[in-house]
Amino acid sequence: EGQLLESGGGLVQPGGSLRLSCVASGFTFSIYDMGWVRQSPGKGLEWVSTISGRGDSTYYADSVRGRFTISRDNSKNTLYLQMNSLRDEDTAVYYCEGGWNWGQGTQVTISS
Amino acid sequence: EIVMTQSPATLSVSPGERATLSCRASQSVSSNLAWYQQKPGQAPRLLVIGASTRATGIPARFSGSGSGTEFTLTISSLQSEDFAVYYCQQYYNWPRTFGQGTKVEIK
Question: Is A33 on the interface with B (CB under 8 A)?
Fold first, then answer.
């Protein structure tokens, strides 16, 4: 069974940027689509973005398209999410997922 | 966008009883449906993929069924550790979408 460990969350002012990372272990990272799902306080799960195994295809929710960029480094078994122009409504726990594995999440808080 | 609708929003069940959770898709997703369990303060836990295949380590009391637009997750005999929120998710096309969740609570 694979493991995913997220990092990079924190408190940022509106309009700011953050870069999330997710390190994978215990499965063949490079063959799986990988993605991010978020959960706002007290709310349900919202898919954010996915990248193909080779990194040549990316998909985004309308709510983040143009502001967030997903990428991966298969040599480091690492997934990234660059988040720019952050808004209050981006406040959430961000989960890394892929290969039917999920991380424990990293908290992102947008507040002035 | 495919809209996933779960019912009921809350299900009150006594331990040992059967729980039946429903998930409906606004258009066919074939069998590209997953079920997740989430407890407070924890990450979602994968229960079922392909609408009916239990994930590794998931007890046999959890079973998924359905295809197309109608899906069911059945918990045959609720244990204390099963009280949680359950989500369905389609992975048939983009964007991936989740249902709003069903909370299974102790009656």
Answer: no
What single-letter DSSP state applies at residue B103? E
> In angstroms, rounded to a whole number, what is the distance separating the alpha carbons of residues A90 and B70?
31
Contacts of B36 in chain A (CB under 8 A): 45
Q: Tell if the CB–CB gap between A45 and B95 is shorter than 8 Å.
A: no
Kindly report, residue by residue over B62-100, the tens digit of the pLDDT.
999 999 999 999 999 999 999 999 999 999 999 999 999
Spatial CA neighbour of B40 closest among A112, A83, A39: A39
Partner-chain contact B43 A47, CB within 8 Å: no
First to last CA, chain A: 40
**Phi then psi for A95, rounded to 5 degrees?**
-105, 135
Q: How far apart are CA A20 and CA A98, in angstroms?
A: 15
Q: List Cβ neighbours of B57 (8 Å cut-off, separation of 6 or more).
A: A1
Q: What is the pLDDT of residue A1?
A: 80
Question: Is there a contact between A105 and B49 if contact means CB atoms under 8 Å apart?
Answer: no
